[in-house]
Amino acid sequence: MMTTAAPRTMPGLSRTARHRIRVAAITLVVLAAWEVLGRFGLVAGGALPAPSAILEAWWADWEEYPRHILATVGTAAAGFAIGNGVAIVIAIATQLVPAIDRLIRPLVVVLFCLPVVVAAPILGIAFDDPWPKIALAVLLVFFPTLIATQVGLRGAPGDAVSVVRSAGGGALRALFLVRLRAAVPEILSGLQISAPAAVLGAILGEFIGGRWGLGIYLVGSISSGNPAIIWAIGLTATALSAILYGVLGLVRLWYGSTEKLLTLDLPSTRRVAGSALRKALERVGWLIAGLAVLIGAWYAFIASTGLPVTLMNSPTEVFNTLVTSDRAPELRAELGEAFLSSLSPAVIGSAAGILFAFVLATLFATFPSIGASAMPFAFISQTVPLVALAPLIALAFGRGPATVVAVTVSVTFFPSLVTIMQGLAGAPSGPLDVLRSVNAGRFAVLSKVVVPNAVPHLLASVRLAVPRALTGVLIAEQLITGTGLGGLLSQARGYLDYRLMWAIAVVVAVFSLIVYGLAQLAEDGVLKRRR
Amino acid sequence: MSPLFPRPARRAAVALIVVGTIGSLAACSSSSDDAAAETDGLTPLTLQSSWINDAEFMGYYIAQDNGLYEDEGIDLTYLPGGPSVIPESSLLAGDADIAITSPDTTISAIADQDAPFVIIAAQYQQNPLGVVSLASSGIDGPEDLVGKTVAVPDVNRLAFDAMLTINDIDPSSVTVVPYSYDPTPLVKGEVDASLDFVTNVPFTISEMGETASSFTLYDAGYKIPNDTIVVTKDALENNREAIAAFLKATVAGWEENFVDTDAYPTKFENSWFEGTGRSIDNELFFNKAQQPLIESADGMFAMTDDTIQDTIDSLALVGITATPDMFDTSFFE
């Protein structure tokens, strides 16, 4: 398929040079196609602007940008630094003391899956400017890096770890001599996932108010009804995160060329001695402890803000709302109905999201040129707030269930994509060389070595994608269809019904925890069988 | 700041929270500008606006730039709003002393959740919210909306449903979809109408080469004001003088604005309106169009007994019980 873009043989050119030419050619073809679609108004009755029109709009307003960019970059950078710093420290702590992992996991999953539309106003009143914005960026950044770092730390070469330990080195020494160094590629891929998340978090944070920032600029420009201007702002955000992503990619390349990993063995699953019953009991015990931490943190947060219960509902309040209050039966019925209508797009969306990420990642691994040229476009879905794209999506795809699924995929696929790509790239070089020496085809290499090696990453990517599926559905429903839980959330906002907003947040949290737990169970099962 | 929630205690407490995950972040939140205590004998007041800077808030900008608040002994901090800002929440949180709100939302919160708010003034005596459509669509009144698709912002869902109910239209006979103030779906015909300020979006629609037609919710019988000025009961008791001074200066700012609606939007091009993503022409249109909705024979910002009764009657039709004690008209007596 690439022969259309560049001749198969290009004598006299190095491998990298040929790759670069292909990437440039594919990118140009895509841009040309976009230009035609935009110029002739072929998509959504002209709501998709041509790249040249976007550039024109950007150029016409360029004086407006520096101050907004500076504000957004400041917030994003703070969120990126704090979120990733805390994530890496916690990942190291959980490697040394696995109990910490089990204790904080429910809390961490819930924080990651909290719908921004619920979290933003709460953060806005709980902290003083600029911390609500930074906090939002931290929330989006933190979890993927935590998971990536943990995968990396566990995936350290077992031989090297045992060498250090048999020489009398403790867990701490093994950690710093072997594990951390071995985990650098995964940590870097975690940071790469964070790059667009930090920018998006900053922009969504700016919706909490303020004077400067691309988010503020976007809100004002949306009412101008000029898609080129909206895209110019959105693509500026995309460019900011792409630059950060690219720099991290260079660091990864540089690190990859200096550090030769021996082999990459499989992450060791926790070995629990004893009967199946005891293991099950232990699981339940940890779950209860984790939930206790989650609920304790919730109470502590509410108490620490000193805000009235009208605004900040504690678990007790939510229990009252849903169980003992006069409106409880009516509310439960409403919530139940909304949840059921959001459930199927969430299930379909998360399955489709992972499949999409896997197909893309294998495609990218097989045809690196396509991967390199497609990545910038994948970024658009990660950094441009959906509120800016909602009218275009509605015009192009309507306001039905298919649109909700598509948006859910776009919200969830990216962390999975990067994680799986990291797994595919980490294939051990020994078997690869063997296969290449017998002239095995791309797909043979892929199916015999690359994909099996990436299974742990694939499983981790499921844990990243699935819990956020309902959040993705909520965003789509709130901005495009007005149905289901998202629609109910909008209604709660309109009636200033804080109790209903909290109840919806709890429904999302419970769903996220359950599917995360299922994904974890499946992961443990698969990894155990592979041992 | 609101004595209900002493800020130092809150800050110190906030610093302790969110164990582990965002802990380092919380610690930093305790360090911002608390030193804004009374300087020059001025009383500090914070106003939480409901939206980003545009002509909707001209009077407040003028009163600040022209020193009208200082003249009344007020040091005003103006907080712009945004899509994720719930102005009433800022009052509850003690982040603001005064908020600009949608009265139906505020009243719903007082009535259904015992929120301690009082409405003390109304910027728009007549609500500029209306149903905006393309002139070619032939939507001239509520009855034309049956079977149509209308884009409605979250915060105005209640108002829209109320307007339909008042006109004996079953809200379920109209398809409502979310709206984020982008007129594109309307101009492209993907929706039949949008609920937006009739003072604002028709300008953009004409820029896009179409002609807009509109009717306000007010004219359709949903007679409530908009951009109501709200304080907490506690502030009303303990901060009365400062609030009165704020209202006086604000009204003076709006009076100055309406001497010539063309004067100030241009003046603010490089200050209040710099980099908002909106054109000055749009603000000029907005400012002119809003004049008749703000000015009133009874005096700007004043709520008459009729205004209050109309509001109570309108909301009663959608099952929200407003009572006269939710309003305080004493500042304009």
UniProtKB/TrEMBL annotation, chain A:
Its main location: membrane. The chain crosses the membrane at residues 68-94, 106-127, 133-153, 187-208, 228-251, 284-302, 346-365, 377-398, 404-427, 500-519. GO terms for cellular component: plasma membrane. It comes from the Bacteria. The keyword Cell membrane applies. Pfam families: BPD_transp_1. It is a multi-pass membrane protein. Keywords: Cell membrane, Membrane, Transmembrane, Transmembrane helix, Transport. This is ABC transporter permease. It is found in: Cell membrane. It comes from Amnibacterium flavum. One of its GO terms (biological process) is transmembrane transport. The keyword Transferase does not apply. Residues 69-252, 339-519 form the ABC transmembrane type-1 domain. Gene3D superfamilies: MetI-like (1.10.3720.10). Belongs to the binding-protein-dependent transport system permease family.
From TrEMBL, chain B:
Residues 1-26 form the signal peptide. One of its GO terms (biological process) is thiamine biosynthetic process. Pathway: Cofactor biosynthesis; thiamine diphosphate biosynthesis. InterPro entries: NMT1/THI5, SsuA/THI5. It catalyses: N(6)-(pyridoxal phosphate)-L-lysyl-[4-amino-5-hydroxymethyl-2-methylpyrimidine phosphate synthase] + L-histidyl-[4-amino-5-hydroxymethyl-2-methylpyrimidine phosphate synthase] + 2 Fe(3+) + 4 H2O = L-lysyl-[4-amino-5-hydroxymethyl-2-methylpyrimidine phosphate synthase] + (2S)-2-amino-5-hydroxy-4-oxopentanoyl-[4-amino-5-hydroxymethyl-2-methylpyrimidine phosphate synthase] + 4-amino-2-methyl-5-(phosphooxymethyl)pyrimidine + 3-oxopropanoate + 2 Fe(2+) + 2 H(+). Homodimer. This is Thiamine pyrimidine synthase. One of its GO terms (molecular function) is transferase activity.
